[in-house]
Give the backbone structure.
Amino acid sequence: MPTERGYLEPEGLEKTYRFQQDSIVQEVDILSSRKAFDMILPLLGPYTIGYTKNGRYMLVGGRKGHLAMMDMLNMELIKEFQVRETVRDVAFLHNEQLFAVAQKKYAYIYDRDGKEIHCIKEHGKSLKLQFLEKHFLLASINSFGQLHYQDISTGEMVANIRTGLGRTDVMRVNPYNAVIGLGHAGGKVTMWKPTCVKPLVTMLCHHGPVTAIAFDRSGHLMATAGVDRKIKLWDLRKYEVINSYAARAESLDFSQKGLLACSNGSQLEIFRDTGGQDYKIYMKHRMVKGYQVGTVLFRPYEDILGIGHSMGLSSILVPGSGEPNFDTFVENPIETSKQRREKEVQSLLSKLQPETIMLNPNMIATVRPSRKKEKKTKKEIEDEVEDVVEAAKNTEMKKKTKGRSKASKRAKKREEEVLKAKRQLMEQYKESDGRPEKKQRVSDEVELPKALQRFAKSRQ
Amino acid sequence: MRVKVISRSTDDFTRERSQDLQKVFRNYDPALRTQEKAVEYTRALNAAKLEKIFAKPFIGAMDGHIDAISCMAKNPNYLKAIFSGSMDGDIRLWDIAARKTVCQFPGHQGAVRGLATSTDGDLLVSCGVDCTVRMWKVPMLKMVDTNDAIGDASQPSAIYTWKHAFWGVDHQWDGNLFATVGAQVDVWDQNRSEPVSSFEWGKDTVLSVRFNPGEPDVLITSASDRSITLYDLRMSSPARKLIMKTRCNSICWNPREPMNFTAANEDTNCYSFDARKLDEARVVHKGHVSAVMDIDYSPTGREFVTGSYDRTIRIFQYNGDHSREIYHTKRMQRVFCVKYTYDGTYLVSGSDDTNLRLWKSKASEQLGVLLPRERRKQEYLDAVKERYKHLPEVKRIVRHRHLPKPIYKAANLRRTIIEAENRKEERRRAHRAPGSMPEQPFRKRRIIKEIE
């Protein structure tokens, strides 16, 4: 049954960003008020969080090795364990049965019961993990700036791309076209796909290192934040800045309904689109001073923002951020185990190949655009040669006197003209047989400047 | 302030009893489904592969005859029954579901050349090289009772002897007349022992005859002088004649478009004509590598099946110039007759090796009653394959058919020969004055002339 989107409406002269979480929590119903919580876990370091695609399960990873998975529907803890190593990032795989953790030296995959399933050494010291669920690809960026794509269903490493742009831990997957966006220390943002060694797009976004990047679900918007104290909103069709705000952000996230959350120190700001991509501040949240917010993530299909900070986790209510109506066959927040198993099988059957990742995903099955320079067909070339030969044959020969215009000589001259004209054309249309053109040897003494002429190889 | 937050109570979203189905909620917003085209393409590819895995068109062979099968007849009232006549005079009635003979009709002293049933299903007419036309009463009770493996032989209800050997017979739709062909075209009434009228155009043997399903008085014949002749029973003389370069072995009218017919020709092609405009073929169906012996249309009128001397059966779309499907078996020798069953699901082929073979018309179709869920899934897969079938990977799989080596080599040879001829044509045309050698459209090429 269709549910209405959440809202927060001020009355009179009130502004939405003046409302505190306490007042909001008091106004909503009991079920929702229970969803806003603060978990103080001071010992085990800054926490990163991850949600499953249907927003039901949350995975929490503390820097000092604390891993926990919770069922948010019933607010119960499923499994909690210590890996006794630095944990840098956590990510769910296709459902809550498996999750990947970027640990100190390698990346590991664990089961729901906390069993270690795989230790993936190829990824190296990964800093960030992202999962492309339609392709079953686990993407990671490591401390050398290498981007790895691994197919989780077959286990094969699909791509290992050396970005060449140094160490970075700013990585996000664009949900619209499954392209990975990386933010680099020089202010560049690059976009990658597994089948291409070079980035698809390189944009110079900031005057300093990029600190955070986020993609909107519609695929048109990208938000980037840099050390130059700017948050920029980019249009991904024209690759131009739509809006720029003077603010700092250590992490950014877009919600399903287009709200943008930025975290900065112990402060959180949430921006909302007021028509025409004009983002204005919607809500503010201040945590206890000293809590450094590391990750912000909107929970799918709920009006909740999950915050992972240096002293634990929090979850705040953000009315209007989640999609109220879910589709059972896309993502189901109230899945039974049978439905989950069915969905796993169906998504494996329609698993996309890594070659289908492209900037414009609607280009599949469209007509290939014609090449700008149309290659002339054989017939056309032949016709052209014929025309040129005709023209050459009909050129006016100068009449020579004193016995120098013999018929044989004239005929020979005419043949030479025709051959000359043909040769010019044939050089133009010479087909190469696929081998790269032979590089000209530096042997022509005439071409080189005087100073280098002694380096010319003499042709024997 | 007014606040509302999404809150779903689990009561609304869970089913009430464990016997109920799980509740399903839909949101058709395309923003929730990213990369849909890629997903559909992957599904199309998988569906094409699955179709090939499940493509098992051969159902079974019906064994019993001791000589090659020369003709078959089907009846619109009984889906399960098919009559077959062989070269030694043995006519049998088969139950297709059990693949057994229900009844035999012995009597002919030579090859049975033609079989036809009347539209109400009571009468079977057979004609043969022994110059007789025999009429049999079709035993209706025997149809239902399939326990009898071989029923007792029936006596013909009438035997008419005539002057010349017969080559084919066909019964009028919704009428009492039937026509036999041999040295000439004779039209008989069921109750008369002599033909009611005779037609003759030229002195050559007439090979096959068909009555038009839409116009009960129009019939078409093909003769060994490479002609196709149209007759109208209301006139006293033949209506129109079309002479081609090679002989047509068999003709069939399109049951849904009764003005169109398709002729199976000796030059390995089938030609579809509009009977009103015979100077140009509408479609030329190419594919076989040897003479096409028989042709039959599906009751939907959208496709037809051809059996050929090259031991294969091909299914063509009614307007398609290449076959959609080809069936072959090592055991099946020269195919002399093919029939599409009246529900459009099966084909029956009668061949030189004394067997009738039963095939599925759609090779990967799941027969029997499908659950609505299965049916919907199949329809979705068909639709998604249709949408992406032009893409190279999908096209390669959908198009692929295994051909027996002799057929494959023969087809390659034909292609080489045809290409060589075309090239020579082009060069001749290029070396002549422009316009002195007109291009003849392929659909006209094999037609010599049309005579009124």
